[in-house]
Amino acid sequence: MVGSVAYDDVQTPFDRRRDLLGGAASYFAVAASLYARVRLVGVVGDDFRAEDVERLRGRGVDVAALERRAGRSFHWSGRYDYDMSSAETLSTDLGVFGDWHPRLPEALRDVPFVFLANIDPEIQLDLLEQVRGPRIVAMDSMNYWLEYKRSSVADVMRRSHVVCINEGEARQFAQTFSIIRAAREILELGPSALVIKRGEHGSMLFLRDGGTFWSPAYPLEKVQDPTGAGDSFAGGLVGHLAAVGSLDADELRRAVVHGTVCASFAVETFSVDGIASATPDAIEGRYQALRSLVAIGAETLAGAAPPPPRR
Q1: Which of 25, 119, 274, 311 could be 268's S-S partner, Cβ–Cβ 3.0 to 4.6 Å?
Q2: What's the half-sphere exposure (Cβ side, CA atoms, 13 Å) at 287?
Q3: Do residues 287 and 258 touch, judged by C-beta distance below 8 A?
Q4: Using 50, 70 and 90 to split pLDDT, how confident is the model at 296?
């Protein structure tokens, strides 16, 4: 996966923390490491703490392609209000990330699964030119790129199997209020699946063959820090797909639920601590809880449709 490794300053109505390990790559890598080995491609400055690199390495994350350059690491500062649904960005300092372009070592050019986190779509395209025939490519984006580099984002979507964006971004891309219409327009570009993240309202999966699936969010009594929820969701989603090596409809549905579970752990505390605390048994427990939450009789969340009623 390629993405940002950063330090975050986070304010909520209940607490304030500074210099937390963050960035899309950090959250994704910690979540995905629960399912498969992760090879992280990114850049940090000379201010990046050695113990944070070791923390990623301790999760089994391959950090050989994590570059260190002279300068400041990517630094983000944001604030949440009581509903915790979205962050107000207070400051963004790209640091060494601002003019960085990844150069994949030869050992990574044949990786079978690729995740392109929310970065400049031209960098995403550059990285895709450096990999040879990946089996699954998944991508994320954000409103800034959709506004200023929409055509490049569309090019990345055309070369991806799975597009993973939030509800507002889907509407923005298609310039429509209708999620259904937005999904159709994105899938017509070529991806097999579109996953729309909806925060506390769960997520939706749209398949190019016309299938649709919805998962609720995992119910939590306490949310401390929503930062990284979407990236942890992507880590669980792509991690499961990499573990099973399949894009069939059932596995995509299961992947969405795994992503939902990973996001639920991520928001329970600050930084990557929440998702780092998850274990395979804890993941399975919440997965089964979500299945039972929406099951109707013997029907299961990832199973077939219920039988027709008797007449």
Answers
A1: 274
A2: 19
A3: yes
A4: low
* pLDDT over threshold 90, residue 156: yes
Residues 6+ apart with CB under 8 A from 87: 78, 79, 80, 226, 227
Amino acid at site 195: V
Spell out where 16-123 has E strands: 16-22, 39-45, 62-69, 74-80, 87-93, 113-116
- Band of residue 300 on the pLDDT scale cut at 50, 70, 90: low
The answer for residues whose C-beta is within 8 angstroms of residue 290's C-beta and 6 or more apart is 215, 216, 218, 257, 260, 261, 301
CA distance 215 to 222: 20
Burial class from Cβ neighbours inside 10 Å (0-12, 13-18, 19+) for residue 105 reads exposed
Give the whole-angstrom CA distance, residue 195 versus residue 272.
23
With H, G, I as helix, E, B as strand and everything else as coil, classify residue 64.
strand
Name which of 130, 150, 134 is nearest 142 in CA terms. 150
Place of tokens 């989603």: 237
Token couple for 38? 């992760």
CA dist., res. 49 & res. 181, Å (int): 45
Helices (H), the chain: 24-32, 50-58, 121-130, 143-148, 150-158, 167-174, 179-187, 229-244, 249-266, 273-276, 280-294
Band (308; pLDDT cuts 50, 70, 90):
very low
3-class DSSP state of 176: coil
Start-to-end C-alpha separation, the chain: 52
Question: Distance between CA atoms of 300 and 305, rounded to whole angstroms?
Answer: 9
299 token code pair: 């029907």
